[in-house]
């Protein structure tokens, strides 16, 4: 089963509530929330007050992607604001195992994110402790970038590792996802797909979302 997680980074912030409700009605399975601090990535987005605002408006899980330094310092805040998943970058965590346990201690599902150049070996010893691996298929920081195809073999390798170890971990892909780029990622074993511009920059968001999902399921 393929799940689509629209990224609100590409939404119209002047009417964010409606933008979230629209993709929920269109068949989205999660809402992807991109948090950027201007240090880990060269851009600033927003903090937990945005979760406070949208949490009452949707019953979908909130998938919080922290592109920030020192994530431990902010996990409680995002958990209390209603995050269902919190993913942290392996590149930003000095004590990854501790961070993952901290997320879990708030009843939130922990996930780990890998930048395009980061090998999967960096997370092999925390796989038993996490619910999701998120592969970046762009360099994080901005929506609307071009998909980096060299990440696909990493997805296949992790998918194999997860199966061999009998684990149930979601594999999520983020960056440049369209009805074309979803295909090799789904074939490689990914099951959750973030899409920002490919949904929110379209006139008919429902058609766009359904087209991407259908391409991934084909
Ligand atoms: C990039 C973010 C992505 C981004 C995806 O740093 O993590 O979630 O919003 O946007 P698109 O789908 O336009 O590449
Ligand atoms: Zn993201």
TrEMBL record:
Per the UniProt entry, what is one GO biological process? Answer: pentose catabolic process
Q: Which residues form the active site?
A: 34, 174
Quote the Gene3D superfamilies the UniProt record gives: Aldolase class I
Positions annotated to bind substrate = 7, 65, 141-144, 174-176, 196-197
Enzyme Commission numbers on file: 5.1.3.1
Enumerate the InterPro entries for this protein: Aldolase_TIM, Ribul_P_3_epim, Ribul_P_3_epim-like, RibuloseP-bd_barrel
Q: Which CDD domains match?
A: RPE
Alphabetical GO CC annotations of the entry are: cytoplasm
Pathway field: Carbohydrate degradation
Q: What is this protein called?
A: Ribulose-phosphate 3-epimerase
**Which species is this UniProt entry from?**
Metasolibacillus meyeri
Q: Give the gene that encodes this protein.
A: rpe
């Amino acid at each position: 089963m393929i799940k689509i997680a629209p990224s609100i980074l590409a939404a119209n912030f002047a009417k964010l509530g409606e933008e979230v409700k629209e993709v929920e009605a269109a068949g989205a399975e999660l809402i992807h929330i991109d948090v950027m601090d201007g240090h880990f990535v060269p851009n600033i987005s927003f903090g937990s007050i945005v979760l406070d605002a949208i949490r009452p408006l949707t019953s979908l899980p909130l998938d919080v992607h922290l592109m920030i330094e020192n994530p431990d310092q902010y996990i409680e805040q995002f958990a209390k604001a209603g995050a269902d998943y919190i993913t942290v970058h392996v590149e930003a965590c000095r004590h990854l195992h501790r961070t993952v346990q901290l997320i879990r201690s708030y009843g939130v599902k922990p996930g780990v994110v890998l930048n395009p150049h980061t090998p999967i070996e960096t997370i092999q010893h925390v796989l038993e402790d996490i619910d999701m691996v998120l592969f970046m298929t762009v360099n994080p920081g901005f929506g609307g970038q071009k998909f980096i195809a060299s990440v696909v073999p990493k997805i296949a390798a992790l998918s194999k590792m997860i199966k061999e170890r009998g684990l149930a971990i979601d594999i999520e892909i983020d960056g440049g996802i369209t009805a074309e780029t979803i295909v090799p990622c789904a074939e490689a074993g990914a099951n959750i797909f973030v899409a920002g511009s490919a949904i929110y920059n379209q006139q008919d968001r429902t058609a766009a979302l359904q087209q991407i999902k259908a391409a991934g399921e084909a």
